[in-house]
Amino acid sequence: MIVFIIFGSFSFMDKMNSKIQDHYFNEKQDLVTKTLSSNMQVDSAAYSASKSVIQLTNSGSNKISLEHLDVYVDGQRIPRSAQNRTIDVLSSSELANPGLWDPQETLEINITKSLSAGNHRIDIVNEYGIKVVTKVTA
Amino acid sequence: MGFSEIFSTLIMFIAVVTISSSLIIMFRGQVADTQSQVIEQQKIISNQIRSNINIDMVYFNNVTETVHVFVRNTGNIQIDNDTLDVYIDSMRVPRNSSNRTIQVLSDTELKNTGYWDPKEQVEIKIFYNVTRSESHVLYINTEYGANSEYEFSA
């Protein structure tokens, strides 16, 4: 009887642990799925009057959060403030959910930073760590 | 069945219950210990599953001879900055402020100011003069084993 009680306790604990770990595995799987299905594509990049303007399409299959997008110019991070950069979904490309960057919609990023003459690298990274790289010529 | 048989059966029953109870009390402590260790182990595994980071960018400043690393918490749990380990070309950067500093970027803070929560970014500054015109590998490892690697050149 003692053996059954002890065995029963361990089986119960094991079942509970499996359930909890399954939950976390599912959470991880969901994150991995979102990461794999996230993608961006640069449509155009140009520099003029101390501003770089980049247009990108959400070429993945899920929404991308605008507030977690980060921009780097020649490796230097551009702070997330309206004085340094603005990010907007082009209204002409809106398909659903105004203001959110849905799949197949186009985003425009304006970076206020004076650049020296020559080529400059621009990296854009989203919340899942997915990155696109482009260049502008000043 | 005679009274004596009933009586002896009853005595045996009481003896079995008494012995069982004593054994349960004896083993309860060990079961509780084992249970708490299993729970602890399960926490560790859960944290490992939920933890993930991504190096967004590495930039070397020639003037200040500082490597700037921008890392994003792409997992689902908070990561402790103090236990981050950084390696450049497999050489470990010691965990002290004269070799490196780690700060959560204020414009990425969502909650718990100063703590590296999910979706937030840290900037790691490494005071190390890397060899110019060569590629280098930067590797970061966290307390739960989540890691990320980035190749850069100065």
Give a structural overview.
The complex is a heterodimer of chains A (138) and B (154). Chain A is built from one helix and eight strands, in the order αββββββββ. Chain A is an alpha+beta fold and 138 residues long. The longest helix of chain A is centred in the N-terminal third of the chain and has 35 residues. The model of chain A has no long low-confidence stretch (mean pLDDT 89). By secondary structure, chain B is an alpha+beta fold. The radius of gyration of chain B is 28 Å and the shape is rod-shaped. The mean pLDDT of chain B is 90. Chains A and B meet through helix 1 of A and helix 1, strand 1 and strand 2 of B.
The share of residues in extended strands of chain A comes to 35-45%
Mean pLDDT of chain A, to the nearest integer, reads 89
Number of DSSP helical runs of chain A:
1
Strand order of the largest sheet of chain A: 1-2-6-5
Task: Write a short abstract of this structure.
The complex is a heterodimer of chains A (138) and B (154). Chain A has 1 helix and 8 strands, in the order H-E-E-E-E-E-E-E-E. Chain A has 138 residues and is an alpha+beta fold.
What are the SSEs and their pairings?
The complex is a heterodimer of chains A (138) and B (154).
Chain A: H1 2-36, E1 40-48, E2 51-58, E3 70-73, E4 76-78, E5 85-89, E6 106-112, E7 119-125, E8 131-137
Antiparallel strand pairs in A: 1-2, 2-6, 3-4, 3-7, 5-6, 7-8
Chain B: H1 3-50, E1 53-61, E2 66-73, E3 85-88, E4 91-93, E5 100-104, E6 121-126, E7 135-141, E8 147-153
Antiparallel strand pairs in B: 1-2, 2-6, 3-4, 3-7, 5-6, 7-8
Could you name the key traits of this structure?
heterodimer; A: 138 residues; alpha+beta; 4-stranded antiparallel sheet; 1 helix; B: 154 residues; 31% helix
